[in-house]
Task: structure prediction
Amino acid sequence: GYLRDIQVSIRKKDGSRGIISINQTVHRDDSGKISRYEAVFRDITEAKEIHEERERTRTVESELEQERLKRESVEELDELKNKFISTAAHELRTPVTAILGYADFMLTSDLLDTDLVMQDLAVIYRNALRLKDMTDDLLDVQRLTSGRLTLQISEFDIVKNLQEIAEELSALFSDKGQQLVLNIPESQWIEADSSKIDQVLINLLRNANKFTPEEGIVTVNMSSSAETLTFSIVDNGIGVACDDLLKLFKPFPGIDHGLHVSSTGLGLSLCKGIIDLHNGDIQAASEGLGRGTVFTVMLPIRL
Result:
């Protein structure tokens, strides 16, 4: 029989503690009887201490690496937060500046006629709606991340909603000379949260408008099967790099869109959250930069 590497703690003559390794071999004669024992005792105290010191070093290095990664994560989040604050401030400042500018002109000009006043009021109204949409999105993203965003389900005609939204946003597209094309049925009733689906449509259309150059084309296609409604927003805009497609629906994606176009990225994150709550799916596809983007949404017709 054998005893292999049995480690025993001992007290040495000098009073210190040590560790020995015992390896024992049992020898037998031809008849099978034990003829002798052979044991080897080896002081492994120093080797054990070196091993334990290496383990402690590995543990410390691992803890330091975890701390470094945690610090980098915090720094990255802090950078994203600062970028978001800067972008959000710019996004909010744009409509506020327009509102103040047109309001000041109306208050101080002596040359206004009724038609001009109505035009200025229309600009003020559009920018006020834009501010409302952005603040609603910010609040809903906060509710979504905290699990407090709830749905109010009803049956409604999504085609009618889309047509009304397209009419409300028509000035955005005409200002850039863009075409907004609707390839949609006469009606399509679904069970969903009407206001939340409106948010999805508004965000996707605003996104297409923002990232499509002047004279571009944005197309909305809609179709349905017995159980599923599918609609897509197709543009011929700046497109998305393949590596960035998976980031699109994350809060603070940190994507450099170029063309000096600012975007917090929260709108698409909110769209995904809303569609997920409806047990649906949203996908983005692009053949690359400068090749346009397609956002496709699939929703159950009945919840």
Q: What stands out?
A: Residues 2-43 form a domain with the Complement Module; domain 1 fold (CATH 2.10.70). The beta strands are 2-11, 17-28, 34-43, 154-157, 179-183, 189-192, 217-224, 228-235, 281-285, 293-300.
